[in-house]
Amino acid sequence: MNKETEINQITEEIDYLYGTIKQCQGAVWDCPNVKHVIIEDNTWYPQKNGYKKATSFCSKCGRCGQARNPDKIDIPLNLINIERCSVEALKLKAKKRKEKVSKEIEKHQATRQALYDQIQTEENKKWWKHYNEYLQSDAWKQKRSLIIKRDKVCQACLKAPIEQVHHKTYDHVFDEPLFDLVGVCKACHDNITEQDRASKNAN
Are residues 159 and 95 in the same domain? Predict the structure, then answer.
């Protein structure tokens, strides 16, 4: 199995695990994961709102829904009637499950990141191998000769003779126009390279 396929499989597993702990959207009554209902006395305006109230509870996200009058709604027959005192235990169970799944997600994310890093390292090695081969090619030697002839002295300090040819940008590397290249001395080239690396690391 190649790394890209493994990354895709890990990503699918992460998405699935997120789905198992994702908080339900909207009213809990509409949640397909609701398996419990609490039927209890209604102490808030019972003459107006009914003497009993029904509250849905989702054991997946650990939320209670809005209380409703059981005489005015069709409560699904498959819902398990539980006591209010049982809710806290179910909430704790849901919380522990979320914590366990979250740790599993973190492990998968770390594995995926390690694979991404491996791929990036391999791609960097291939790029530098190609680049070093390019610097030995006749096409590069011809470009280098033209830059030295054009610039005559280091274009960074305008004092020292040209020793190296610097890429101002790597946007067109391997097929760069000559305005992307500039002749510099070794000291200036080393300084420019150090500044570029510091800037990249800062970002």
Answer: no
- Count structural domains, the chain: 2
Please indicate, yes or no, if residue 88 is contained in any of the structural domains.
Answer: yes
State the Cα–Cα distance between residues 38 and 159, nearest whole angstrom: 86
Cβ proximity of 52 and 37 under 8 Å: no
Residue 23 pLDDT exceeds 80: no
pTM of the model: 0.69
H or E segment to which residue 164 belongs: strand 164-167
Q: Which residues pair with 164 in a beta bridge?
A: 184
Radius of gyration over every alpha carbon of the chain, rounded to an integer in angstroms:
33
- Is the Cβ–Cβ distance between 185 and 161 less than 8 Å? yes
User: Residue 40 falls within a domain, yes or no?
Assistant: yes
How many Cβ atoms from other residues are within 10 Å of residue 190's Cβ?
12
User: What pLDDT score was predicted for residue 74?
Assistant: 80
- In a domain, residue 131? The reply is no
The answer to whether residues 104 and 17 touch, using CB atoms and an 8 Å cutoff, is yes
CB atoms within 10 A of CB 86: 13
> Are residues 93 and 146 both part of a single domain?
no
Residue 26 confidence (pLDDT): 64
